[in-house]
C-alpha cells in the first residue's frame, strides 16, 4: 500500500519533472511539487526526540502558516507515509497566532512580514522552520528551499538549526548550502 | 602400459609410482586450493563490493533524496581509489541514471535501468545492484561493477606456483627414489644373485643377507629357510644314498630297472661288477642280458617275469649266470612290476643279489643232510637185516628144542636142560624181536590190526605167561585189582599183550626180592571236556616197589636204547627197548603211557590210558587172541604138505615137526624143484596131489609169491608163507599172491600148527 502510494507520488513527480522543460519562465510549475517532496524528505533526515510528541501514537505534524502553495501536492507526497510508525499529518495555521503543536513548519513567502512573530511562536519547541528565501534564513529561519535555475536548492542556517535539540543527518547537510 | 610396466625394472617402476603419486597429490591439492581460492575470492569480492555499495548507497541518500546529482557524482568519484570497481551508477527512484562513474563513460554503456537487487558474475565482471535506503525507504539503486581480472591474475600466479612446486617435488621425488629404491631393489637383486648362484652350483650353505624386517626381509628369511631345508634334505638324501650305496656294495646287491615299453634295462653301478661285466659287455638290451644268463635258466627267468607281469605280483627268482671266465654264479632277483593307468605293465625294477655263497652252503647242507639220512637209513637197514639174520638161526633151534621136548623118551634131567635152552633162546628171540620192532617203529613200519578186544584176558595171559614164574622166583607179591566195567578197547591184541608183558617184565626185573607188584584196572572219564557222552577211558596201572626212577632219568626212559642208568644196564641186562616199543604201540592205539616215581628206590608206576569201545562191538570172540587160540581143540587131519625152504636145517626141523603132527611132507629147496614136484604129483589134489603149500618167501631162484600165484590160480592150493619179514606190507603182498597165512620167522610151532588146522578145516567145509 505504502509502495503504491509512493509510486503514485513518484509518478506525479516524474510527470512534473518530465514536463518541466515545456514550461516557460520561472517559477517552474513543478516547483512546489518538488518542494512538497523535499518537505516530506526532511522527516527522513531529521530525528525528533520522543519528548516532541505527547504520546506514542501522536502523528508527525507538518504545519503550514498562511497560504498553502502546494495545493494537494504535499498531501499527495505524504499520503500513506509514516514517521517511525507515526502517521504524518498536515496542519494549516492562518497566522502566527494560530500556530500550534507541529514538528515541521513551512512558512510560505506570503508570511515574509510576520517572520519574527512566527519564530517567536515556535522558539524552543523543537520545530524545524522551512522557508523559501535567503532572507528567511538571514532572519532566523532554519532551512530554505530556494528555487534557482530550474532547480530547488537547500540552504541551511546551521546556527538557527542548532537552537533546536534535533538530530540532523549529515547527509542533509551534505547536499545543502550551509550558512551560519 | 601394463605390458611396459611388467617388464620395467623395479627402480623405474618405483620412480613412476612416486612421480604419479606426487603429481596426483599435487594436482588434487592445487585444484582444491584453486577452487577454495575461487570461492573465497568471489565471496570476499562480493562482500567487499557489497560493503562498498552499501556505503556509497548510504552516503548518497541525501543526494538522491534532495536531487543533488553533483554531490552524488562526488560520492561516486571516490571509487576511483577502488581499482577493482570499473564502473558504478546511481539510479533514482524513477529508475533513471542519477549519477555515474566514471563520468567520462557515456551513459549508453551503463545498464539503462537498474536490474533486480543482488549480484551476478559474468566471465570478467561482478555486477551488483543494491537499494539506496533511508530510514527503510527506498530512494534509488546503486550499481557497482567489479573487474575479475585480479582474480584471474591471482589464479595464474597460483598455477605457476603449482607448476613450480610440481616440478620441484618431481625432482625431489626422483632424487629420493633413486636413494630409496636402493633399499628395495638392492636386497632383491642380492637375493636374485644368491638364488642364481645356488641354481648354478648347488651349494646350499650360502645365505642371502637380510637388510631389514620388511617384506623383503621376510622374503630373504623365507628364502634362507628354504635354502636350509633344501640343504638339509639334500644332505639327508646324499646320506641315504651313501647308506644305500654302502649297503648295496657290502651286500653285493645291485638295482635294475627294465622299461618294458622300450625294452631297455638300466643297471646301477653295482650291477656291472656283480655280473663281472663292463659297460661295453652289456648294452641294456634283453638279448645281451639273456646272453649272460645260464642257458638252462633263461626259460625260468622269462617265465617268472611273464608270470609276475600277468599276476601283478612281485618277481622272486633265482638263476645262474656265466662269468666271462666261464664261472657259474647264482643270482637272486627280486622286484616288482609297475603299471600305467590302463593296467598295462610299463616298468619293472628291483634288486639283484649274488647268492652263490649261500647257494653253495645250501647245497653242501643238503648234501650233508642227504648223506646223514642215507647213513641213518643204512643203519636202520643194517639193523633190520642184522636182526633178521640173527633171528633166522633161532628158528630151527627152537623147532628142534620143541621137538625134543615133545619126545617122551627124553629123561627128566635133560628135559630141564632143554627147557633152559628153550627159555634162553626165547629170551634172545624176544630181544631180537624187540630190535626188529624198534627198527620197524623207526622206519614207520609198525602196523596194527585193531579190533575190539577185552583187555582183561590179555593182561591175565601176559601175567601168567611172562610174570608168574619170575615173581615166584623172587618171592614177589603180585596183586591184581579189576575195577573196570568197560574193558573193551580197539586194539591189536598181540601188540597190546606185548605192552603188558613189557611192563610186567620190567616190574619183575627192577623189583628186588620180596617186593610187591600191584596191577589196577579201572575206568575213568576222559579228562577232555568232549568226553562226557563218549566212552570212558580204561586205565591200566602197574606199580612196583622197585628201584624207582630218578628225576634225571625220567624224561628219557621212553627213549629207545636207553635204560634208566648205564650202571643198571649192566646189572639188569636187556637192550632198553621195551618202554620205547610200548609207548609207540600205545600211542599208535591213540592212548598214552606215563611213568611216575617218587624217586630212586621208591618204586615206579606206569599208567596206560586207552579209550574203551562198546562191549557189544567186541562181543564175538576173536581168533587173533593168543589166549583163545592156544587152547582151542581142532582135530588133527593128515595133509600132504609141500614144504619149500632153502635153509636145510630149518626145512629138516619143520619137516620133522609136521611129520610128527601126522602130515605127509615133501621138501623142495627151490621154486624150480617145487614146480617139478607139483608136475610129478599131477593135478589130482584129492588123491596124490599136495593139500597145502608151506613156503619160505626168500628163495634162491625167486620169491615164494611167484610159486603161490601159480598154485592158487592153477590148483587152488592154499598156502602158508614163512618169512623173516612181518610188516603189514609183507603180509598184504603174501595175501595178494594167494597165501592164506603169513607167519613170521622164527616160526612159532603152535602158530603154524593152528594155521594148518584152520586151513584144513576150511578145506573140509
Distinctive features:
A: 180 residues; alpha/beta; 10 strands; globular; B: alpha+beta; Beta-Lactamase; Helix Hairpins; five-stranded antiparallel β-sheet; 20% strand
How would you characterize the overall build of this protein?
The complex is a heterodimer of chains A (180) and B (765). Chain A has 180 residues and is α/β, with parallel strands linked by helices. In chain A, 34% of the residues lie in helices and 25% in strands. The longest helix of chain A has 18 residues, at 2-19. Chain A starts with a helix and ends with a strand. The relative contact order of chain A is 0.15. With 765 residues, chain B is of the alpha+beta class. In chain B, a hairpin with a 2-residue loop joins β4 and β5 (137-147). Residues 618-635 of chain B have low confidence and may be disordered. In chain B, strands 2-1-5-4-3 form a five-stranded antiparallel sheet. In chain B, strands 7-6-10-9-8 form a five-stranded antiparallel sheet, with helices on both faces. Chain B has five domains: 9-156, Beta-Lactamase; 251-354, Beta-Lactamase (2-Layer Sandwich), CATH 3.30.450.20; 376-440, Helix Hairpins (Orthogonal Bundle), CATH 1.10.287; 452-618, Histidine kinase-like ATPase, C-terminal domain (Heat Shock Protein 90), CATH 3.30.565; 635-764, Response regulator (Rossmann fold, 3-Layer(aba) Sandwich), CATH 3.40.50. The interface between A and B is medium-sized, with 20 and 14 residues.
**CATH homology-level superfamily of the largest domain in chain B:** Histidine kinase-like ATPase, C-terminal domain
Number of strands of chain A: 10
Q: What percent of residues of chain B adopt helix (DSSP H or I)? A: 40-55%
Radius of gyration of chain A, Cα only, in angstroms?
A: 16 Å
- Structural class of the secondary elements of chain B? alpha+beta
By CATH reckoning, the class of chain A would read Alpha Beta
The N- to C-terminal Cα distance of chain B equals: 131 Å
Task: Report strand order across the widest sheet of chain A.
Answer: 3-4-2-5-6-7-8-10
Q: Helical content of chain A, roughly?
A: 25-40%
- Largest interface, chains and sizes: A-B, 20 and 14 residues
The CA-CA distance between the termini of chain A, in Å, is 41 Å
Our count of domains of chain B comes out at: 5
* Overall 3D shape of chain B: rod-shaped
* CATH architecture grouping of chain A: 3-Layer(aba) Sandwich
Quote the CATH topology of chain A.
Rossmann fold
- Our Rg estimate of chain B from Cα atoms comes to 68 Å
Contiguous uncertain segments of 5+ residues of chain A: 15-27
Average pLDDT across residues of chain B? 82
